[in-house]
């Protein structure tokens, strides 16, 4: 007697197929988490079972503790899984004076958002579309908003400073985000004169660091700085752990360099051994602050950022 095999072919309806083939869903297909700034919380691997996304139920709130954990339906796995923010995630927000609903909405289609919301490009990255609701009463805290708007925080600096660091180069007080092109790069030849925007404590010690976020290099570092009458005691005789390196039009890579100048109030005194171990190349603020958490807090007391551009290299490659 012949065995009969019954094959059931499930064909999705046209509406469901269109939804699964949408631009928005295709963008999520390589992740269990709908929000691109999140990742799945993974189980610990065992000898028998590899690590996998932790399953959950949306009504039970049973995801492990983490960075804003949430139970989401995975279009890839076809089940509910636990998601959390990626480490140092650059969580998008709506443009200024719009409330943010962290709901991606694809190709700027307002109909994908709740009533009263519009589908707009996020602040600092127009390619990420979010549902946004206009609200002119919103208030923004500075300097955090400017650091986030320019994607300095958290992409380059984990936490925004409490205050803006006032820096003056060649008698010119710079503004956050100011760009010096190659024709005026000589204005940055000497270290800046700085004011923290807040009175410093004379019994505390401070660290100043200047990092080129483009080339990932430390270009100035002064540690164990004393304060006098609420101001930094930095002068030409102050010994630097890393001497100030002025920008040059021949710097690599060619183009614009983003500079971050930050002031930290120290927990403890830097040892010469720790200062000697700091990686001056391939520098990362987050890793540096994590490694030396016994000396520095995670948040700068004050900071600013600016940029300079080099001349374009017109030489032909051989």
Features:
318 residues, mainly beta, Phosphatidylethanolamine-binding Protein, 3 domains, 7-stranded mixed sheet, 3-stranded antiparallel sheet, 16 strands, globular, disordered N terminus, PEBP-like_sf, signal, Lustrin_cystein, PEBP_euk
Explain this structure.
Residues 1-17 form the signal peptide. InterPro entries: Lustrin_cystein (IPR028150), PEBP-like_sf (IPR036610), PEBP_euk (IPR035810). Keywords: Signal. It holds the Pfam family Lustrin_cystein. A hairpin with a 2-residue loop joins strand 5 (118-122) and strand 6 (125-134). Strands 7, 10, 12, 13, 14, 15 and 16 form a 7-stranded mixed β-sheet that branches. A 3-stranded antiparallel β-sheet has the order 1-3-2, with no helix packed on it. It starts with 13 loop residues before the first helix and ends in a 9-residue tail after the last strand. Helices cover 10% and strands 29% of the residues. The longest helix has 7 residues, at 14-20. Residues 1-29 have low confidence and may be disordered. The protein is globular, with a radius of gyration of 25 Å. The chain has 3 domains: 28-43 and 50-85, no CATH class; 98-134, no CATH class; 145-309, PEBP-like (Phosphatidylethanolamine-binding Protein). With 318 residues, it is mostly beta strands.
């Amino acid at each position: 007697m012949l065995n009969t095999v019954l094959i059931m072919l499930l064909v999705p309806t046209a509406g469901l197929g269109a939804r699964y083939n949408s631009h928005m869903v295709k963008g999520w297909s390589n992740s269990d988490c709908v929000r691109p700034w999140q990742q799945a919380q993974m189980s610990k691997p065992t000898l028998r079972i590899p690590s996998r996304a932790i399953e959950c139920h949306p009504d039970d709130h049973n995801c492990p503790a983490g960075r804003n954990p949430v139970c989401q339906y995975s279009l890839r796995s076809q089940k509910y899984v636990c998601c959390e923010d990626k480490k140092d995630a650059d969580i998008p927000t709506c443009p200024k004076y719009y409330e943010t609903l962290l709901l991606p909405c694809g190709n700027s289609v307002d109909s994908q958002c709740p009533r009263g919301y519009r589908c707009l490009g996020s602040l600092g990255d127009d390619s990420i579309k979010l549902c946004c609701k206009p609200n002119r009463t919103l208030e923004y805290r500075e300097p955090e908003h400017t650091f986030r708007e320019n994607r300095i925080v958290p992409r380059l600096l984990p936490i925004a400073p409490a205050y803006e660091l006032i820096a003056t180069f060649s008698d010119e007080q710079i503004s956050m985000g100011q760009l010096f092109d190659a024709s005026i790069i000589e204005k940055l030849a000497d270290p800046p004169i700085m004011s923290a925007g807040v009175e410093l404590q004379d019994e505390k010690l401070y660290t100043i660091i200047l990092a080129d976020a483009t080339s990932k290099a430390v270009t100035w570092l002064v540690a164990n700085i004393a304060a006098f009458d609420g101001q930094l005691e930095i002068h030409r005789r102050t010994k630097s752990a890393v001497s100030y390196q002025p920008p040059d039009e021949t710097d690599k890579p060619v183009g614009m360099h983003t500079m971050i100048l930050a002031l930290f109030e120290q927990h403890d005194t830097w040892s010469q051994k720790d200062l000697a171990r700091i990686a001056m190349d391939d520098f990362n603020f987050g890793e540096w602050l994590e490694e030396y958490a016994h000396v520095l807090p995670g948040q700068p007391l004050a900071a600013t950022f600016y940029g300079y551009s080099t001349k374009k290299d017109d030489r032909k490659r051989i």
